[in-house]
Amino acid sequence: MTSMLDAVVVGAGPNGLTAAVELARRGFSVSVFEAKETVGGGARTEELTLPGFRHDPCSAVHPLGIGSPVFRTMPLAEYGLDWLHPELPMAHPFDDGTAAVLSRSVAETAASFGPRDAGAYRRLVAPFLGKWDSFAADFMSLPLTALPRDPLTLARFGLVGLPPSTWLMRRFRDDRARALFAGLVAHVIAPLGGFATGAVGLVFALAAHANGWPMPRGGSQSISDALAAYLRALGGTVHTGYEVKRLDDLPPARAYVFDTSPTALARIAGLGRAYDGYRYGASVFKIDYALDGPVPWTAEEPRRAGTVQIGPSSREIGTALRRASGGQPPDTPFLITAQPSLVDPSRAPEGKHVFWAYGHVPNGWQGDFTTSMERQIERFAPGFRDRVLARATAGPRELAERNPNYIGGDIACGAASGLQLLLRSKLSLSPYTTSHPAVFLCSSATPPGPGVHGMSGHNAAKEVWRRLRQV
């Protein structure tokens, strides 16, 4: 007779693996079941174009990964995770051939905005500098699963970040700073005027100053592989190629933890319409490129940056986000791009490069955004198309096929707008629990939301081990 496990985790993305590790570290028996043949979820690396070109189908750059409170407690370096830092975390080019930057240095970042806004930026970030560890632990545990370590800094952050980002951007007199900050907010694919969007932009800026925006050597798969290896070292098991359609498909356990969308959880666990009010947001159109050389940026700074935001004005960026969220593809897309092979030559054959880019489109959109995106890249890197050896495109349908958590191509696993930015996946002090006492949710549909940081898994694991110790 098979002995009952303490916990079964469904889904081997970073949050599911983190939840499993946290339970295994506390002596619980844990098994993970993943439908795909490899672990990873949104943190995978694959040859999508040509042999020898290793691409990240979803996440590529990890400011919240290197700064994750839970990852920092794990010996992931012993299991192959090695963070690589580009010279500049991010650059944001403009039509005049110049660029603003987000640097590890506050002074360099502020100077790139120009003299009219340098002081405003320094004053914005000054109260939070040197406080990342305590601040991140508090901010990424919302709703609070423990007493805040630094309540004063958290309250100060709330005063600045809870209003819409458009309010925060009024601090700046010129559009260079506003455009860069609007691009930071756009990483959660939400309109700029939404509740708490100021917090999003500020967190990404502070992450750069505290820890940079690095990439893992070998690609995002390295994060997932390190988590899985650590879990196995702790005695946990991982089963891949195992699709779960109902709870009966799983071995008996005292707790079931789902790194899935709320939609899938409700279907598998028989929770009926428990998450009918949960909203899914805009999608992206993703292109992975194999290039014959580096991107020929006009401005010098993007040639040294791991991430390049492409949107020359805050108005253009705001319009693109508003249209995508409202059901229309933007005429002029805002793009987030990454250049992994600048810092990691192992990602491409010698002298060649991989390039990663996406633009925002409506949920479930079925068009082709390639021409619009490449026109926008050429605007700041003339001759880019001449360096393309191959491209792999993925719209909302393909993204959802690759990862069932991406409903309609929503890579955030739920709209990160309105109250749902913070109160995911339901209005509750315990969003990780469900109406079934043995079933829990740990995906990015729970706080703190999207990103490869494992904190949703960590927070959910806290709820699970508290429940297991009660029975």
From TrEMBL:
TM segment ranges: 179-207
Record bears the keyword Nucleotide-binding: no
Keywords recorded for this protein, A-Z: Membrane, Transmembrane, Transmembrane helix
InterPro entries: FAD/NAD-bd_sf
Keyword NADP: no
Pfam families with a match to the protein in the record: NAD_binding_8
Protein name: NAD(P)/FAD-dependent oxidoreductase
Species of origin: Streptomyces corynorhini
